[in-house]
Please model this.
Amino acid sequence: ETGVTQSPTHLIKTRGQQVTLRCSSQSGHNTVSWYQQALGQGPQFIFQYYREEENGRGNFPPRFSGLQFPNYSSELNVNALELDDSALYLCASSLTGTSDHEQFFGPGTRLTVL
Amino acid sequence: AQSVTQLGSHVSVSEGALVLLRCNYSSSVPPYLFWYVQYPNQGLQLLLKYTTGATLVKGINGFEAEFKKSETSFHLTKPSAHMSDAAEYFCAVIPNFEGGNKLTFGTGTQLKVEL
Model:
């Protein structure tokens, strides 16, 4: 069983640039959620994708967008980067339609915006 | 909106001592409850969860938590701390009156274990 993987591990960008982060879900899972974890804080829900559609969104502006592909992998795109976007971005996969409710997290992508 | 409160952003215990990390949720309908651990520069690992059934839940690495509806709490305990337990711990909830599984996290508790 392959776990959740994320790429890249680390990324440095400058203000105004755009970034794409990638996530491969765990085998058998059909749902991907993205979270932003700023330094010293708990993860904050960005959005979730199920069957290639956005299935819920947290309090993040439209410049945060995503995709889910037929193989259930996902991308998080952030446009017009701001300094406050510096954070650890976590992807979690799960199986919607069961009572399990468990999410499996990847190791994260550390984004630094200068 | 659902919220989670973790009392104590930093907890320090001696090796071999009891670990108690506190978590309270705000909801009139009990949510699904989770504890995650995060080691430095790593993602989150599930320690244990409560969805239904027995209110005392046993997890990995000797941790357990008890769901107390009357206190809206889900405190995490371990009888004897080990140096390897030093990490950040997050309590999280999923409302059980919604579809989907969107986690709301507390702000975390950093556990330090001293010799």
